[in-house]
Amino acid sequence: MRLTLRVWRQKNADADGAMSTYEVDDISPDMSFLEMLDVLNEQLILNGEDPVAFDHDCREGICGACSLVINGDAHGPERTTTCQLHMRSFKDGDTIDIEPWRAAAFPVVKDLVVDRSAFDRIIQAGGYVTAPTGAAPEAHATPVPKPDADFAFEHAECIGCGACVAACPNGAAMLFTSAKINHLNVLPQGAPERETRVLDMVARMDEEGFGGCTLTGECATACPKGIPLMSLTSMNKEWLRATRKASKR
Fold it and tell me: Rounded distance, CA 106 to CA 128, Å?
């Protein structure tokens, strides 16, 4: 395959960026999108040019580091992570636009790499559970109803890639925040911090500068792990419950 790549190049958050055009040849349809970028970078290095900076780690669809907007879609045309997107999803001769996540809360570090530490700070604001110290408790000492366990696991699948933010017209982080809140709050181990967790994490999300949610649903459509839009409803109920309880104190 021969492809034309239009890649966003930007030295840092304060510098102006622009699209640069490159041609790559002999691309196998079985290559992953990141392997194709590796080929581009090898070509740039051999030509004495600065390689394109992009984020990656596991390349197995687990970590979510491979955050790219491809032809206007977060992670590309398939509902998967960028590292699991293969070049057979494109055609010989295609022009592919490659950009970083676009959100005020995700400043550009360089080229296609953005700083997603805002997500870490949201988790730090309330992402923990109370656990007794001492000997490890019996695994079945605290029974969890099957529906609650399934609900928790469904939301725990969130890998924090940020596709929901990149896909949202407002740059909202509601789907990510709701996933992190819901998977802890539904479990008995998360009950002691249930109210403070949702209040603190939502407040931190707003402080980080993410946009407001208008329920367009693009976040759930782009999520590679299939976190459902109903997650927002569950979080909003938790937030209202905690707000009302706090107001009575």
Answer: 24
pLDDT of residue 192 exceeding 90: no
**Cα dihedral 100/200/219/36 (nearest 10):** 30
Report whether pLDDT(151) > 70: yes
DSSP single-letter state for residue 210: P
Closest among 205, 201, 175 to 190, alpha carbons compared: 201
- DSSP codes, 74-91: ET-SSSS-GGG-BGGGS-
Pairing of strands 73-74, 18-24: unpaired
C-alpha 24, offset from chain centre: 28
* Confidence class for position 175, pLDDT limits 50, 70, 90: very high
Q: Is the whole model's pTM more than 0.85, yes or no?
A: yes
Q: Which residue, among 15, 52, 18, 49, has the nearest Cα to 33 in the 3D structure?
A: 52
Please say whether the beta carbons of 71 and 28 come within 8 A. Answer: no
CB 40 within 8 A of CB 112: no
φ, ψ (nearest 5 deg) of residue 32: -80, 165
CA proximity to 33, closest of 64, 4, 75, 62: 75
68-92 per-position pLDDT tens digit: 999 999 999 999 999 999 999 999 9
Nearest to 108 by CA among 13, 26, 189, 19: 13
